[in-house]
Amino acid sequence: MPARTPMPARLRPWAFPLLVALVAGIAIVYTTDGSGVRLSNNQQIGQICAFLVATTGLNLLVGRTGMHSFAQGGFLAIGAYAFVWTQLKWDAPFLVGLAVATIIPALAGVLIAVATTKMRGPQLAMVTLIAAVVIFKVLSEWKPFGQFGGYPNVSAHGTSLIEPPSLFGWELQPPLFGGTPATALVPVIVLAALALLLYRRLVGTTWGLSLSVIKQSELLAEHLGVNVYLRKIAVVSLAAGMAGVGGVGYALVFAHLQPETFALMLGVNLIVMVILGGSGYVLGPVIGTAAIVYLQTAPSVASFVRWENDVISDRWYLSAQGLIAFLMIAVLFAMPAGIVGSAARLYRRWRPRTSAAATTSWDGDDPAAHLFGEEAVPTELVVDGVGLAFGGVRAVDGVSLTVVPETIVAIIGPNGAGKSSVVNLISGVYAVQGGTVRLGGDVLQGVPSYRRSRLGVARTFQTPILSPDLTVTDNVLVGSEQTALGSCAGAVVPTPSSRRRHQRDLLDVAAALELVGLSEVAGRTADELSYGQQRLVELARALVSRPRLLVLDEPAAGLNPTEIAALATILERLRGQGLSILLVEHHMDLVRRIADHVVCMIDGRVAVAADADTVLADPQVVSAYLGHGHLETTGDRHA
């Protein structure tokens, strides 16, 4: 998951679109001169652009969401055949054919997504591989599509080429005939440019950032309010639709379809293009697609194979495909993050530290009051008799506790006492087995984690879960409300209200970072931070959602005394804003300083619940958890 490399703010809105438009314009001028001496080059450029649309969509899956799909080649084939079908059967206008070729693969993507969103790793890859095989079999064996005779073909359609479609009265001629301008390449190049701009737009929004969170941890995404199931369906459908658009581009370039072009290896090659170029980077598919398409048709590769055959052996030599595979393995061995990814990491390693400055800074008065001011709604958490069992073991047995507004409640106890299990019951990781959990007037049992987050429950984890290649700002921004509630369409086409919300979210991020003391590192990537700073990033991410209940699972673990003191100050400021705070903690100095009420759990039950001094001096707590040395140390401290 690549970080968004900082650049001067005034260049951000238009620098990349200008670059894409410039390159696309040069490509259009180069390919449409009609001289007829560059037919093979024009076909190569057209194929690169057609595949680029598909690989850019695949980049959303592989690079951003962590879903490896071999079906992208099949979706490209569906789009190509659907477009040609609209031309042969309906003589449809170009834009109608384009719409059909986009919608049908997108719907097919929904079907596959519904079947695979619960799967991960090899299982997901195998299902998409099977889908690719099925699509190829249908196209190669179903008579209406010409089988291996191609589509269209002379015997069935009286021609082997589709009639050039028209766009606004402009005939789109393929790059197949000398002396004829290859006007079909204009929409193909434009579609490739639009795909890149779409990708760039998406990944810069909270909707796009949520995909990176899903890749890092689906558990975290759920606790940020993201419906992972629906979000995965949306991104698979979007990627499939983009593959369909790529299929239209392929049909425009070659005006004829052969099913063997869309065999299983196409899906494999598309994935390799993304990974070779650098998955997750906007330019990754550009470099990977161009490199592989060029190598597959490069005269130098064919010449090298002939040289092997003549000089080394006519039996033992690398074929063209073998040579390309060897080169790709060598590149990935040297650059595991891909060509663009490795270059970006090298740049981040050597860039000046000054480039990591925050792009949005806090210049208000009290950041805590900004986040939890007049709009804050004081809310009480009531946990009544909840239970949880794993097999025959009762991890939580009839636990009850209450957290009222402007109060910090600490849960302490030995390892295995059930503290984190209670937190997981409250946040929705585990289903409550008996008892009730209420937040204000909302009953939480039976409510999934993402809906609990939307109701105002925010939490951190025992070990920080951050996207290491995202900036601190982006890692905090994903905690905003729009990450959970925003739509793909809203991300692509922003409205004035969505822009205002985004600016408000950035202001909230600046306030949260100021509150936790991380404003100076806002532009750095998370993997550049110390462990203590990463914990504070998690806390800031929880705060930008403006929760009604803040749940912290061992927030001081791994922190030094100075960092613990700073954490205590932050939590006291939040309590002063009326926030309800529940934390699990082992640092008794922190508990004694900030906790208004302490619950000690032993063997899954509440052993003692009272103020901190009473609980920490209780004989049962001392015997089972703190040890008698704790009393001596405490006595010396108070002497």
From TrEMBL:
Record's keyword annotation contains Cell membrane: yes
GO biological process, one term: L-valine import across plasma membrane
CDD domains linked to this entry: ABC_Mj1267_LivG_branched, TM_PBP1_LivM_like
Membrane-spanning intervals of the chain: 44-62, 69-88, 94-114, 121-139, 176-199, 233-256, 262-295, 316-339
A GO CC annotation given for this chain: plasma membrane
Origin superkingdom: Bacteria
Keyword Membrane: yes
Alphabetized InterPro entries for the sequence: AAA+_ATPase (IPR003593), ABC_AA/LPS_Transport (IPR051120), ABC_transp_permease (IPR001851), ABC_transporter-like_ATP-bd (IPR003439), ABC_transporter-like_CS (IPR017871), LivM-like (IPR043428), P-loop_NTPase (IPR027417)
Domain ABC transporter: 381-628
Protein name per the record: ATP-binding cassette domain-containing protein
Organism: Nocardioides marmoriginsengisoli
